[in-house]
TrEMBL record:
InterPro entries: AA-permease/SLC12A_dom (IPR004841), AA_permease_N (IPR013612), SLC12_C (IPR018491), SLC12A3 (IPR002948), SLC12A_fam (IPR004842). It comes from Scleropages formosus. The chain crosses the membrane at residues 126-147, 159-185, 205-229, 250-269, 275-296, 330-348, 368-388, 443-467, 497-514, 526-543, 563-596. It comes from the Eukaryota. The lineage of its organism: Eukaryota, Metazoa, Chordata, Craniata, Vertebrata. This is Solute carrier family 12 member 3. Residues 42-93 form the Amino acid permease N-terminal domain.
Length: 1028
């Protein structure tokens, strides 16, 4: 039966795996749709024919392919994977992998029996006017607008006050532009300022600023509430009403007020938004009352207090500064006014409750900054054109009554004489003396009081909502311990009720203090920290040139963002230098904690992009620097297979490469190209295991037809520029006599390939072995377990049993889903070695690699107490001279090795029983009589290059005996050493069969309790005693 049947009439095709209906998990039908697990819509190319003109599994672009959210009642589509488009569908009963996943479940894996559920209730969402602009304007306007702006105008003059207002608005405007750019660079979720900074700069800075920003908002609730309570207490006092005393009255009114605000917040965002609209209308009415009051003619009562309607000479007099008192300076006025320009993040803080944050945040925030700036400028110029600086408020000071001839002050032109109070500096009215000047000018004074109430309560309510919203997002990210409890949401809007209660408790605690003069500067500095980091986030994301930085909002500049960040920090110190230091100190402490904990999150931050840029720039820069012996580092390619299968070898190499040089763990997966093989080679579980073990190593997996070709790929292709391996590290092939001869040939061939490519070679042997894969069997993915025959018959990944596997061909048994459960087996190289010895047998000069490795080991704490002993071959007659020569050479190398022993008996004959054991090792590989004819024809050397002839043994007899004798010396001198490092013999290609070479390596390192490292450099110097 054919796999695909083509209908000539319809042009449609059908592909279905052979097997039962139950086993078939996917098929195509004549409708040009791909069915998987019964879900028609899971992967569909519906309308692809209309789109492209052809019948194809390829699908046209679709929004759902890129979205992480699902629509209730509608199955999500997922684009077909490359496997589905490229590979032949096989009868394995396994569903092909899909790229698009949601909540860890492949799309299309749905059940037909799934019960219909009610669609979730749609949460309340706000547009840019009600959700952002109104909220930001209410948070920006405050008591400073009503009670301090006229006074600042009198001190600094209209001209400098405009500069103060415009400078403050420039800072907030730049921050608004940066916020708009970040908010339009992808879909924004709940969390406001914390979400924007953390997803841009990463969890380290984002987490620290999110925590203090949420706390600052909670304390700001108390500040605004106390401001409201103080105003109410003053009104009560003026009318002769008092509950207890001034301080307790403020506490009582404040607690009652914040409780009412909490009730509004708990009622839901709809009620909170309606309350904000009501406050907005009250403030608008108070503004209208003020403007009308400036236009209507002044009454004698208002004239006595300094109000004369619009006059050009009053404007001229108030245009220039009139500094008075200790606070009479530009920066003092700026520090007092600037907090009234903050509050621009109130809309962004409820980003999760906006219909379209990417549109609402830029439009609403920038318009709020514009309209509030205009309101400040208008009030400044109008109050400065209508009211003189000094007035007595006494109706008897009219010139018509006093008939004074020596009148002082601008009011003299309008028939008022305030000379006495001006000269005595006892004036109680005028914009420089009377904070309630706006109420005095207003057409109806109580409306200004209502405006003050609206401004303070709206700001308190906005902060009470912002703090829990920001804190909830922070809690869900689990960056800090013990705060996850407050992240739970309730209702259709996912309201953080626990967060509301926490913010309420914090606010009440500070309200009970009833004196926030020392805390207010810290809060202002926390807000400025947020502004600085938002501006820096925009600058950093722009300067890294990450392809992922594509904000749809284009009206920003990275340099203006940088200026905004710097100016924000400068203003922090101008406001209160000690509060700035406290704020920065707290941020650095929280930053250090997150850096230490290293949370497992990946948000694609600009810090990651910057790290990549820096690494790439430095790597390319190395191309302009020639290699020098002084800068030589052993950069190791470790043929570990899956690193978790050979932890001892990984730990050992990591000991001398950590923070010093490159370490690359290589893994060769044998078999033809397939999805399973690629996933096995490139599984992230290997890197996860290395990171969890705190091993600073790269990982590289390749898929190859056989082991040797895979290692050739690694030897030639791994690395980047000059950061590439120069030493190959592999484990000793302990089962070489039991394994197939072709595997032995591959193993020795890999060593020859490394020498051909000018690599140094190190072979590590331990008595208990290196392969721990048997310990990992409980963590093996059963889906990968198959025999060699099954692997080839199914055309899939060929799995070789461990007993038949060489050092790095364990293709993969670790499942990525359970990588976190792989045990971290402890090895001898993770322990302190104590006062033992590292015995170095430097018998052949390989350039110095044999000496450099023990020196690097002794620089580490685990090996620092070990003494290095260097053994060299020599003659008994010249033993003292040879020892002095070697000590002199070692001293010139400055390695710190001071003990040298000359082996005068190294050239003696080995014991007969050891020679016999060596012969027994080679017995299975020696040529028999019937094979000698084939050898003479040259056929055997091509088909069985591992065989050993009598000529081979005779030609290499001296070298064989030397390895046997050297093993006897190692047993005599180094039984109790912590590590033995010895020169590795080199077998000449074509003259030394692979079995003979393997027997040398085996007999040299056998029966030794300590770990043995066979080392052979590439015969080029890696040590020098010159300084240039």
């Amino acid at each position: 039966m054919d796999a695909a049947a083509l209908s000539a009439r319809s042009g449609k095709y059908t592909v279905s795996p052979v097997g039962s209906e139950k086993e078939s998990k996917f098929h195509f039908d004549g409708g040009d749709k791909y069915y998987y697990n019964g879900d028609v819509n899971s992967v569909a190319s519906t309308r692809s024919e209309a789109f492209s003109g052809y019948n194809t599994l390829d699908t046209p672009p679709n929004y759902q392919f890129y979205s992480n959210t699902e629509v209730h009642g509608r199955s999500r589509k997922a684009r077909p994977s490359l496997f589905q488009l490229h590979s032949i569908l096989q009868e394995d009963g396994l569903a092909p992998p899909l790229y698009e996943e949601a909540n860890g479940i492949p799309h299309g894996d749905s059940s037909e029996d799934e019960e219909e559920t009610e669609p979730p209730v749609e949460p309340t969402r706000f547009g840019w006017v009600q959700g952002v602009m109104v909220r930001c304007m209410l948070n920006i306007w405050g008591v400073i607008l009503y009670l301090r702006l006229p006074w600042i105008t009198a001190q600094a003059g209209i001209g400098l006050t405009w500069i103060i207002i415009l400078l403050s608005s420039c800072i907030t405007g730049i921050t608004g532009l940066s916020t708009s750019a970040i908010a339009t660079n992808g879909k924004v979720k709940g969390g406001g300022t914390y979400f924007l900074i953390s997803r841009s700069l990463g969890p380290e800075l984002g987490g620290s600023i999110g925590l203090i920003f949420a706390f600052a908002n909670a304390v700001a609730v108390a500040m605004h509430t106390v401001g409201f309570a103080e105003t109410v207490q003053v009104l009560m006092q003026e009318n002769g009403a008092m509950m207890v005393d001034r301080l307790n009255d403020i506490r009582i009114i404040g607690v009652i007020t914040v409780t009412c605000l909490l009730a509004i917040s708990l009622a839901g965002m709809e009620w909170e938004s309606k309350a904000q609209v009501l406050f907005f209308l009250v403030i608008m009415v108070s503004f209208a009352s003020y403007i009308v009051g400036t236009i209507i003619p002044a009454t004698p009562q208002k004239q006595s207090k300094g109000f004369f309607s619009y006059k050009a000479d009053i404007f001229a007099a108030n245009f220039v500064p009139g500094w008075r008192g200790a606070e009479g300076s530009f920066f003092s006025m700026f520090s007092i006014f600037f907090p009234s320009a903050t509050g621009i993040l109130a809309g962004a803080n409820i980003s999760g409750d906006l219909k379209d944050p990417a549109v609402a945040i830029p439009r609403g925030t920038l318009l709020a900054i514009f309209w509030t700036t205009m309101s400040y400028l208008i009030i400044c110029v109008t109050i400065g054109s209508c009211v003189v600086r000094d007035a007595s408020g006494n109706l008897n000071d009219s010139l018509a009554i006093s008939n004074s001839t020596s009148c002082v002050g601008l009011a003299c032109r309008y028939d008022w004489d305030f000379s006495e109070c001006i000269n005595n500096r006892t004036c109680t009215y005028g914009i420089i003396n009377y904070y309630q000047s706006m109420s005095m000018v207003s057409a109806f004074g109580p409306l200004i009081t209502a405006g003050i109430f609206g401004a303070t309560l709206s700001s308190a309510l906005a902060c009470l909502v912002s703090a829990p919203k920001v804190f909830q997002c922070l809690c869900k990210d689990n960056l800090y311990p013990g705060i996850g409890f407050f992240g739970k949401g309730y209702g259709k809007n996912d309201e953080p009720i626990r967060g509301y209660l926490l913010a309420y408790i914090i606010a009440v605690c500070f309200i009970l203090i009833a004196e926030l003069n020392t805390i207010a500067p810290i809060i202002s500095n926390f807000f400025l920290c947020s502004y600085a980091l938002i501006n820096f986030s925009c600058f950093h994301a722009s300067v890294t040139n990450s392809p992922g930085w594509r904000p749809s909002f284009r009206y920003y500049s990275k340099w203006t963002s940088l200026v905004g960040a710097i100016v924000s920090v400068v203003i922090m110190f101008l406001l209160t230098w000690w509060a700035a230091l406290i704020a920065i100190g707290i941020i650095l402490f929280l930053l250090a904690y997150v850096l230490y904990k290293k949370p497992n999150v990946n948000w694609g931050s600009s810090v990651q992009a910057s790290s990549y840029n820096m690494a790439l720039s430095h790597s390319v820069g190395l191309n302009h620097i020639e290699d020098h012996i002084k800068n030589y580092r052993p950069q190791c390619l470790v043929l570990s297979g899956p690193p978790s299968s050979r932890p001892a070898m990984v730990d050992f190499v990591s000991t001398f490469t950590k923070n010093l040089s490159l370490m690359m763990c290589g893994n060769v997966v044998t078999g033809g190209p397939s999805t399973a093989a690629t996933e096995a080679a490139c599984s992230s579980s290997h890197v996860t295991w290395l990171n969890k073990r705190q091993v600073k190593s790269f990982y590289r997996g390749v898929v190859a037809d056989d082991l040797r070709s895979g290692v050739q790929m690694l030897l030639q292709a791994t690395g980047l520029g000059r950061i590439k391996p120069n030493v190959l590290v592999l484990g000793f092939k302990k089962n070489w006599r039991k394994d197939r001869p072709c595997c032995l040939e591959n193993y020795i061939g890999i060593i020859h390939d490394a020498f051909d490519l000018q690599f140094g070679v190190c072979i590590l042997r331990m008595k208990e072995g290196l392969d721990m894969s048997s310990t990992m069997q409980t963590h093996v993915n059963p889906g990968f377990e198959m025999s060699i025959e099954q692997g080839h018959s199914n055309g899939g990944l060929s799995m070789v049993p461990v007993s038949q596997l060489t050092f790095c061909a364990i293709s993969v048994t670790v499942d990525t889903d359970i990588s976190d459960t792989i045990p971290q087996l402890r090895t001898v190289f993770q322990s302190r070695q104590g006062k033992k010895t590292i015995d170095v047998y430097w018998l052949s000069d390989d350039g110095g690699l044999t000496l450099l490795l023990p020196y690097l080991l002794t620089r580490k704490k685990r090996w620092g107490r070990c003494k290095v002993r260097v053994f060299v071959g020599g003659d008994i007659q010249q033993m003292d001279e040879q020892k002095k020569e070697m000590l002199a050479l070692l001293n010139k190398f400055r390695l710190g090795f001071h003990e040298v022993q000359v082996l005068t008996d190294i050239n003696e004959k080995p014991r007969p029983e050891h020679v016999k054991r060596f012969e027994e090792l080679l017995a299975p590989y020696k040529l028999s009589a019937k094979h000698k004819d084939e050898q003479s024809d040259g056929l055997l050397s091509e088909s069985c290059p591992w065989t050993v002839s009598d000529e081979d043994l005779e030609r290499n007899k001296a070298k064989s005996l030397r390895q046997i004798r050297l093993n006897e010396i190692l047993l005599d001198y180094s039984r109790d050493a912590a590590l033995i490092i010895t020169t590795m013999p080199v077998g000449r290609r074509g003259a030394c069969p692979s079995a003979l070479y393997m027997a040398w390596l085996d007999i040299l390192s056998c029966d030794l309790r300590p770990p043995v490292l066979l080392v052979r450099g590439n015969q080029e110097n890696v040590l020098t005693f010159y300084c240039q």
